[in-house]
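Complex record, two chains
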Amino acid sequence: MRKISLLFLTIPLLLTGCASTGGVVAEDLWVKSSEMSMQGGMTAVYGTLTNNTQQDVVLVGGETEIAGVVEVHEMTMIGGEMKMQEIDGGLTIPAGMSIVLEPGGNHLMLMMLTDDLEAGEEISVTFDFDGAEDITVDGIVAKPAEGGDEDYHSGEMEMDN
Amino acid sequence: MVSRRGFLAGGAAAAASGAVGIAAGAAGASLAAEADLETFAASRQAEFYGPHQSGIELDIQAVTNMVAFDIKESVTKADMLRWMRLLTDDIARLTAGEPVLADPAPELAIGAARFTAYVGFGPSLFSKLGLEAQMPEGFAELPAFGVDQLQERYSAGDVLIHIAADDPVVLAHGTRGLVRDSMPFASVRWVQPGFAHSPGMIPAGLTHRNLMGQVDGTANPELGSSDFDSVVWINDGPEWIKGGTLLVFRRIAMQLDTWDQLGTPSKEEVIGRKLSNGAPLTGERETDVPDLGARHPNGLLVIPEFAHIRRAAPQESGERIFRRPFSYDNGMNERGSMDVGLLWTAYQRDISKQYLPIQRRLEQLDLLNQWTVPIGSAVFAIPGGVQGSELLAEALFS
C-alpha cells in the first residue's frame, strides 16, 4: 500500500492547476426528518466530508436556520452504554482524508429546532471549520430514517456535554 | 471512520490489474472471462435520466414488485412534491447501483442489475387532490367487463411504484428503500411480485414465455422505434404527462389444470399461434403477419373466429398497445393447483382509443377467456422522465 500511496502522491502535483476549489468537500449529505418535534426538538446531519487540503482541518460546529444550536457529536461507550456527547475541540479531518457522519457514529447535531422538519424538505447548513474555509451546502434533504441506536425523541436521552 | 478516499480506490484498481496480469495465461484468461460472465448482470445499468421514466422501453427484467399506495388523508400537493423529491433521488441512485441516502444497509447495494422504478398516479389521486383538470386525455377508470372477477386487494390505488431488476436481492433492497421513503405520505395498498426469465436465458429482443407456455408479447412495437414512440409516449396535453404514458394493469389468473387437459393443436387454435416458436398458424416465424383470411381445404378458417390473436388484432389503425407482462406465482392449494398468472401491463397514449376497443372484442368472444380470469385491475398515468435536477411529476404538484 505504501508504494501505491507514493505513486499517487504525484497526482496532486499534476493537478495543482485545477485544485483551486480545495478545502473541504461535502457529499451525500442528508438530515433526519423530525416531524414530531416541537420547539426544542432535535435531529442530525449526516454525510461525507473530504479534506482536500494539505493540513488537518477541524469541524467545530455549524449554523442552520432551523436549529438554535448546532454541535459536533460522537457516539461513545460511557459506563457500558452507547451515549451521545459533544466532541471536545471538534472533529479532526486529517489532510487528504474523509470522515463519514452516520447514524450511530459522528454527526452534526441540530438542537432547539424552530419548526418541524418534514420528510423531503430541504435545508441549508453551514459547516464551520478550523483550518479551512467554512462551507454552506443547500438542498440537504430530510429523510425518514431510523437506526444507529439513537433516539432523539426520547426524554430519557442523556447528554453529557 | 476515516478512509483515504481516492487513494483507497486507486489501490484497489492497481491490485485488480495486478491480479489480471498474473492470470495472463490462456487458462487464466478463460477463468477471468467466466468470472465476468457470472457477474455480468451486476454491472448492467438502465438509464434513469431522459425524456421517459425507465423500466418501460426496456427488455423485460427478471423480477418485479408492483407497489400501490393510498395517500394519507392530510396529504397536499406540496407533500406530494416532497415525496417525489425523495423518490427521484432514490431511483437515480438505485438505478446506478448505489445505496439511497440514509440506507441502513448500504452493503446490499451489490450492483445495478438493470434496476428500474417508475412512478404513476391513479384517477383516485387526481380527485383526492382536486387535480381533475390535469387528467390526461383518454385516462379514466376502466368500465366493468363481463369476464372480470376483480378483487379489491389486487386493484386500484392512488400511486404506483413499479420496480424491477435482474436480481431478487437488488429488487428487495431497492423496494425497501422506496417504500421507507413513502411511509410519511401514504400506506401500502397492495404489492404484487412477479418474474420473467433470468438474465442470459433469452436473447435481448426475443419474446419471453408465460406460464401457459405461450410466447407472450408478440407484435409489440419494437423498442427504440418511432412506432414505439407513437404507440406509447404522450407528446401533448398537460405539461407533466409529456414524455409519459398510460398504464393498464391487469392481474390475470391462469387455470392451468384445465388448460393442461388440452392437446397442443387445441392450445394453438385458442391463441392462433404455434406453441413451439410463436409463429401464427398461417406462418413460420414469430414475426410473420397472421393471414386472418386463410382457410383449410375443408373451408374452415386456419386462425379460428374465437382465436385470441384474431380478436386482439386492430380493427382501426391506432388500436395498438405495448405489453410487458411479468408472470406471478402465488403458491398452490392442497390439491396442487397453482395460483399463477400474469401481471399484465399495457402502455399506450390513450386508453380509450387503444386498450378499450381491443378489450371489448376480447370480452365478447375470445376462447382464451375460459382459462384466464382478470382478478386485479388498475390504471395509472405515468409522468415523463427527468433531466438534471428536475423532480418526477414536478409540473403536476408545483
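Note: Residues 1-20, 151-161 of chain A have pLDDT under 50 and may be disordered.
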